Model the fold of this input.
Amino acid sequence: MKKILFMLILCSIFISPSLIFGSHVPIPPDGVLEMENYIRVFLKYGSYTPTLSLEGRWEDENFQFRYRAITLGGYYRATKHLKVGAFYRLQQGARHDDNWINLDPGWAWWDTRGRTEHVLLLDATPRFLLDFLPGQSWVFTLKNRYLFNTYNSQHTLTVRPGITYFLLGNREPRFNFSFNYDFYIPLNYGDTFLYAHWPYLNVLYHVSGIVKLDFSAAYKTVTWSTSEDAILAGESEYTVRANSLVFGLGMILQFEL
Done:
């Protein structure tokens, strides 16, 4: 009996504190599969291309339809090799570090599906034909975006290098095959240089001159940093990486005006 009591005391000393210590740290789910669906409309008018994008995402272990957004704006071809753009995004269901909240007792992610956020975006995308590669149908792009979220005053820079091969048939595009890598850089929040990053493969099928079908697969890594509630509660700081496999399926409509 004394031996059992002694073992219980040891467990309470060495095991319980670790559980209490870890209780305020979000636990990333294993093997999460996410799905993104979208419709993007491009209206080309000379050097200007107004755009409209509708997006929705199923995510988390229970595969909830959580994030959705509408983005309005447009691109302007400044030079042969450079497009610039400005956009406005209305979104719901976005998750930020500070959405990990203290329920007292317990911790959980705040359900943000009913919260509306406004995001302003600026875009600069240089692109170059890599005519030294076989087939002379390879294009390198470097998409750079600045985002300002008015909800929490977060400033973000995203950088996405990528290479695309254009497969032609009867001198018309049939497929685009792309490999890209997205880097999501927080400028005034988080405890790491990269908030998120993900390589992804993309296949674009030209159904017609107007209709395109878009398929993608990405391996996404997001790093959560200490939330405001954890700091206020006097808990220890943390950084947690969450990985997920994200599939995308969308439709792109392109019109010449």
About this structure: Residues 19 and 202 are 42 Å apart (CA to CA). The radius of gyration is 23 Å. Residues 2-22 have pLDDT under 50 and may be disordered. Residues 28-256 form a domain with the Porin fold (CATH 2.40.160).
